[in-house]
Every structure is written in structure tokens, then in C-alpha cells.
Structure prediction request, 857 residues.
Amino acid sequence: MTGSRRQLTLRFVVALVLLTGVALMASLPTAQAAETPRRGGVLLAAIGADPPSLDPHQESTFANIQLVAPLYSTLLQMDPLDSSKIIGDAGTEWNTSPDGLTVTVKIRPGIKFHDGSTLTSADVKASYDKIVFPPQGVRSSRKAHYAAVAGIEAPDPSTVVFKLKHPSAAFVANLASPWNVIFPKKYLDKDPNHFKNQVVGSGPFKFKSYVRGSTFEGERNPDYFIKDRPYLDGYKFYISPETSVRAAALRSGRAHIEFRGLPQSEVDAIRKQLGDKITVQEAPTPGWWAVGFNNKVKPFDDVRVRKALTLAIDRHTMGKVLFPLTGLRDVGGLVRPGTQWAMSPAELEKLPGFGRDIERSREEAKKLLAEAGFPNGLKFTMINRNVKLPYQDFAVFFIQEWKKIGVEVENRPLETAAWFDAGRQTKNYEAIIDPHVDFMDEPDLTLADFLSNNPVQNWMNHSDPQLDDLYARQARALDPAERKKLVNGFERRVFEQAYFAHGLWWVRSIVHASKVKNWVAAPSHYSNQKLQDVWLSED
Amino acid sequence: MRTYILKRLLLIVPTLLGVAVIVFLIMRVIPGDVALMILGGDDGGQIDPQQVAAVRRQLGLDQPLIVQFGTWLWGVVRFDFGDSLWTGQPIVHELAIRLPLSLQLALMATFVSVLIAIPLGTLAAVRQDTWVDYVVRIGSIGGLAIPSFWIGILCILFLVIFFGWGPPLEFTPPWVDPWVNLQMMVWPVVTVGYRYAAVTTRMTRSTVLEVLREDYIRTAWAKGLRERAVVVRHALKNSMLPVITLIGTEFAFLIGGLVVTETVFTLNGIGRFVVEAVAHRDYPVVQALVFLIAFSFVMVNLLVDLTYAWFDPRIRYR
Prediction:
């Protein structure tokens, strides 16, 4: 190669490197720009039901909170991008007194309701008074969560003070409940039920329209207290009770998202058709499905029978079998596996029904049944809800497992109202499919199912003073290590007594168009629904 | 004639009263409590028994049954069906949202099915045991055998998978945008109309066949009348009485009976409303809707009876 040729080659290589560098430099900002939030667009969502009313204080269904959460502020909130953190919303700072009996929250100044009035501590006090001390004729779905509250004060317009009867480990987390929206006091003074049919909030979106059974719409609040938010011009929910219709709406682009989650079979079909045009987020949820035994009815008043029935269930296989069908997947205790209060898998596996050696468990189960006077097995009826997912498949798995130890069970599906009536009121059942879903991972909420004086929530129909005592102590324990010990002790007691046969924890699969940005699925389908940070890309 | 209509209209009162009593009692006998449903939501949660009692009091469910029924009936007399226990909204408002859609669907499906069924049924009868008859019979048996909601799901999946398109999810009244309305309504109309047409085709075919064997038809042929005159003027008109009875009953059924089709096509109609109200134990809504459906059955039957005279002048009303 001659010198000039070599020089030419060198120049060519240098030029090529430079060009490549320039091209790379040029492409970098473009890639970043693609992730820069874009203003505008209306988020289209599909939802499975209408809410009974629009007042979140009075309702307990996703059909309420998903529709109205973007219209309101709460005192505190779970971080939209990391739901394990609690951050402020209308409240900016909060502190608990050293004795744990006073919680003070400072209110952000200058927040405007959608009617133009200013949000003050008087509105917060009025809203919380309605939740904690509901007046006659007003229901409060979560009054029991605030049993520790002795009184609420508003010493000045920017301060609200909660006085507690006893320290409460869960209290601050409960102030971040998505249900505890702040209403303007002046409307509550006239009619505490005003917000069942009306909306005046201070959230990122303003109410636009609602046609029952059809659509619900919100539009951007230009006076929202966080500058430049929300990014969206609005949001619109299409109400359709049929799962396959909601899935088809996502496939055809008529909806961008279904927040509650779709069955895995639909998720797979959508993924197959739309590829990277859709994104699937998996969200392990603070909710389980289980079978409750009526502990006051024979033979379920005998701990040996109950223990045999829980020992017979191979939960580890059940998770693998049921997840594609139902979304039920994770094996865990009474608090969601992997979270702050949960016991380790090794500890859990020592408890009846959680061991890995299912054959040994089945042998033990048969032995216990024989000891209890049922050497040839037994027969009973299990009340179920006549809803396909996940109720029927879940029941079928249990029934099959029980058959292996000689227990014959009839699955009796009832329509929702009759099923609730049996579980919550009449207790007219031998065994019943018993689900539990919370808005956050909080032992106070989850463990309350097992309290003696809580007949509406305790579907096992048992009384256990030891559990009541452990519950009260964990609820007051402000030291996390001490609380965890008490919570785990509570779990051990429940599983040793086998008041119920635990099933699996729910994992939601949320499908959305990939153009929906900055929305992170929270564990609960009640949380992270304000949509203030969500935006739509152009694709 | 006027006396007959008046008599029939007066008979509506005991009929509807009977329906009201039966529905009222059935709704109270079946287990379930709207207060528990309202407080408990769909996923359980903590419920205060005092709150349950307070809600029952607030909804008037703590009153004796006879008082509850009397209050409701007095409201009906004044055309006030009360408020939904579940939503607190006046039932009349809830009906106003849904009734136009259900009526449009019922009318369109009836129109489509009559348009298809009567010519096809007649043709199949006239060409009995030919390939035309076989094709019509296979098509109509298919319509009877295949559930319409399944055809609906297939329609939607076909559109979504092959065209990446799905019908609109929101009802737009025809007077607002007829094109968007048609995009939504055409699929349920096809789905429901197919089943409806199948039933009507079968009925038309068998009644026309029966009439074609009558003496006066033989006479008409003997007189040398053309086929069209024999079939349309003599056979078809005389075979219409059972067919219009069927069309009337089917029409009334469509107003409140399309629960699954409405669900599949996201139609916010009366059928879905009934089922949701039953599931929520929303007593006044169920009573009002059953009342409405019973009323539409009675009225449609009256209209059908009145049209008999046009088809068969021998019929006299007293």
C-alpha cells in the first residue's frame, strides 16, 4: 500500500468514525426526547362495572375508585411510581408525636377545588369526620379502619391534627388510602350524601360526564396545584361487564388500558396479536382466595378435620396450574409474600399445608381424619360465587385435591348477593370460598378477617381470644421489628388452628397500549388511579 | 271494537298487579341483602354491623313487607317508580338512558327478520323438498341451534382479528350520528335478527304449507290464477295469523330479554339493567322493569290481536 493510499484510508476511517459519532450524538437526544412527556390526548380505559355511587367514602369497589380517583386529592398518597412509599398530596408534611397519640399534617397552601374555593384544613376535617364518625343516614365503608381515632381538629387553615385513643402503626398509611378523598366542607354541611351523585374535587381532572352503564369522562384541570400536570387532556372509561369485550376493545384500539387486569389467556392472545404495541405489567396484589370453614358447624369444629383439609392442598402446584387460568399464583401467609411483614418461605413451609412434600402431608391428613372419626373420608358442600374467574377454577382445584384424601365436596355456586349473605350474615354454610383484597399491604386490614368480634368479615365464624390479643398488640406496636414478630405469631396461630384453608395470592396482569407512559401498576387495583403523571406517546 | 279495546285495557290492571305481587314476593324470598352488597363492595373489607342496620333503615328495608309494597304501589299509581337502592338515582332517569337503545334494537331486529323470514319461509313452502327448501331449512335450524351471543362473540373476534377493528363501545343515538350508530348496532341486529328470522321462517314455512293444502287454494289453482296471486293474495295472507303472533311475542321479548347479547356488544339496554338489578337486590328497579316488560307484552299482544282483523276479516271484536 502506498503512503498516499494509506493516508486516504486513514482519512476515510477517521471520517467514518466521526460520522458515526455525530450520528450517535444526534440519535441520543432523539431517544431521550421520545421519553419526554407529551401533552394532550385522552386516555381510553375499559372497566367492568358501574359504581353504586360516586362517593368513595361510601363504596368499596374498583368501579368507584378507578372512575373518580383522578377527580380528587387525598391527604397523603402512595407514590405513583413506587407504591411502597408514602408521599404527600394535599398534605405536605406529617409527624407523629413521641407517645404516638397525635398525628399532625400540614396542608399545601393554594389548592383550589374545581368550584374555585380554596382547600383548607376545615375541608380535611369535615371529610375525615364523615369517614370516622359518619352522621345518621350516611354510610362509611372503612369506618372500622379508623377505630383508633378519638377526634380530629383543625387549629388553623393549614394544619389538621388527628388525636388517637392508642398508638396505631397503620394510621399514617391509612391516611394515604385512595378512598379518603377530600370534599369541600360547604357541600357536606348541607348534605353529607351530596357526593353520591356530584363531584367537586381538587384533583388533576375535572368531572365531565357520566352515562350509567356506558361511559365516564374527566377533563384536564388547568388549575391543578402541581404545575404542568396532568399531561393528559382527559380520560374516558367505557363500562362493559364482559371480559372478552374489554379484551377485544384493547385489541381493536378502542381502549388503551384495562386497570383491573385480564385473565392470562386473554393477555396471551392480545400479546400474540399486537406484539410490542402493547405492554403487560404484572402486579402481585394484596389479595388472596381461600376456603373458609364454618368453625361452629360439625365436623369443622374439630381442629383435626380442618388441619387435614388444609394439609391435603398442594399449594405449590396449584400456583402453577391456576395462574394461566385465573391469575392466582403466589403461595404465602396472611400478609403478601415478599413484603415487609411476611414470614420467609422457609418459615412458612414449616406450617401445616405449606410443606413441599405433598405425599407426606396427605398421609398426615388421612391420619388426622381417621383420628377425628372419619377413616373413610367425609362429604360436605362448599358455597361458591357464581363468577367464573377465579372462583370456579379455584374451587375445582381444591375439590380435586380433597378427593385424594377421600373427601367428597360439592361445589355450590350462588349468585353474588346470596353468596355474600351466606358469608357475611347468615353463616349458613359448611365451607365457603372466601376472598380478601385490600388497597395496601397492611396487617391491620388483612388480619381483621380473623377477629372474634367481627362477624361480617370473619367468614370462618370462630372466636379466638389469643388472636384478638395478638391483633391488638400488633396494631399498637410502633417498632417494626416487634410488630413483625406479633404479625407472624398471629399467622402461625391461624395456620396451626387451620381456621381456614389458605389458597393463593392474586397476581394481576394489566395490559395497556405501549403508548400509555408513566403508569406503574400498583399492587392493588384501587391504588395509583389519579393519573396525574400519565401521558400518551404519539404512536 | 271500542268496547273491546277498553275491556282489554282494563284487563291490564289486574295482570300488572299480579305480576307486581309475584315479583315483590320472589325478590324478598331469595337470599341476599342490598345493604351488605352496598357496604361490602365486590372484594369484602371491614363492615360495621351497625352500619348495615343504618343502611337498611335508610333504604326503608326495616319496614314491614306490606308497608314496603304499599309505598311502592302508591308511587306506581302516581307514575313514580322510586329511586334505585343501589345508585340512589330516580328509576325513570335510569330507564330513559336505556330504553331508546333497547327499542331501537328490537325494532331493527324485527324489521330485518321480517324482511328475511317471510319471503324465505314462503319460498321454502312453495318449493317444498327442493334445494331451495333444504337451504332455507338448514339456515333456519342453524339460527335456532346456535346461541346468538356466541355468534356475537364470533362476529367481534372476526372483526378484531382480521381487521383490527371493533364496534364502538359507546351508544350514539341515530339522530346524533346515524353512521356511528349503525357501526355499533349492525352487529347485534345481525346476531339477534338471525335467530329471530330463523324462528319466523320456520313458522311461516309450516303455516304456508298448511294453507297451501286448503280447498280454496286448490280452487284458486283450478280457476287458473297465477302462482303469485295464489301464494301472495290467498295463501300468505291466510297463513299470517300465527306468524304475526310470534313476531309480536318476540318483539316484546327483545325489549328486556337480550341480556347476553347486550353484554357482548356493550349495549346499555334494559336486559342488562334487569340482571344487574337482580344481582344487586335492587328491589324497586327489578319491580319497575318487570312491570315495564309485562306492560310491553300486554300492549304488543293487544296490537297483535287488533291486526288479526286486517288479515282475516271474519274476525269480529266484541
